[in-house]
Amino acid sequence: MKIKAQGIVPVMLTPFTPDNRIDWEGLERLVEWYIANGADTLFAVCQSSEMQKLSLEERVELSKKVVSLAAGRVRVISSGHISESRDDQRAELVAMAETGIDALVLVSNRLDAGNAGTEAFRSALDGIFELAPQRPGPRSVRMPSSLSPPLER
Question: How many other C-beta atoms can be found within 10 angstroms of the C-beta atom of residue 142?
Answer without folding.
Answer: 7
